[in-house]
Amino acid sequence: MAPFSRAREDIANARRRDPAARSNFEIWLTYSGLHAVWGYRVAHWLWTHRLHTAGRAVSQFTRFLTGIEIHPGAVIGRRFFIDHGMGVVIGETAVIGDDVLMYHGVTLGGTSVKHEKRHPTLGNDIVVGAGSTVLGNVTVGSHSMIGANAVVVSDAPEGSLLVGAPAVPRPRASAATDSYADSAIYYI
Fold first, then answer.
1. Cβ(94)–Cβ(121) under 8 Å?
2. What is the reported pLDDT for 174?
3. Strand ranges (DSSP E) for the chain?
4. Which of 28, 119, 156, 170 is a plausible cystine mate for 91, CB 3.0–4.6 Å?
5. How far is Cα 120 from Cα 107, in angstroms, rounded to an integer?
6. Spatial distance between the Cα atoms of 162 and 168, rounded to a whole number of angstroms
7. What's the pLDDT tens digit per position in 91-124?
């Protein structure tokens, strides 16, 4: 997908998920979560083309501007939206699927210093609540919700609601039929 088409898709996605959004121009100008994702894409392109130092430099500059740190080695799907993103940290080997909504203060962190997969994998259509932490090489299945301030340290099946510290996966009441954006209001 061309960069400008992708940016238009991101703006439309932000407008769909954020009831406070008033115009595409306002989103383009003021949404730091989108700016962080756009900066990540540049850094990731550099990283995947073996320009690691340049990728890290872009990543750190984006962090300076937005308060959101996304390692250029992370793999992020389409329509990823960070709402009120200050303090978000996404590690090098993290994998994030499509249609993921993430709030401020989230950490997708590692638990190892070895050169291996050490960060989380999030499936598609997931809501990650404010202040939550997902640590290590764990997988959270698609259509799941991670509640605010949850600490996830073990795998969770598809359609889970994860709350607590450590988070315990519970089945969502209607994971297959809920709209993640609408149901986020009730759980987070």
1. yes
2. 61
3. 69-70, 75-76, 81-82, 89-90, 95-96, 101-102, 107-109, 121-122, 127-128, 133-135, 139-140, 145-146, 151-152, 160-164, 167-171
4. 119
5. 10
6. 6
7. 999 999 999 999 999 999 998 888 899 999 999 9
- The predicted-structure confidence for 142-163, as pLDDT tens digits, reads as follows 999 999 999 999 999 999 999 9
Q: Which two tokens stand for residue 104?
A: 């401020």
The Cα 3–Cα 160 span in angstroms is 33
List C-alpha distances in Å: 124 to 4, 66, 134: 23, 25, 16
């730091």: which residue's tokens? 32
Amino acid letter, 116? E
- Reduced to 3 states, what is the DSSP secondary structure of residue 78? coil
C-alpha 6/C-alpha 51 separation (Å) is 23
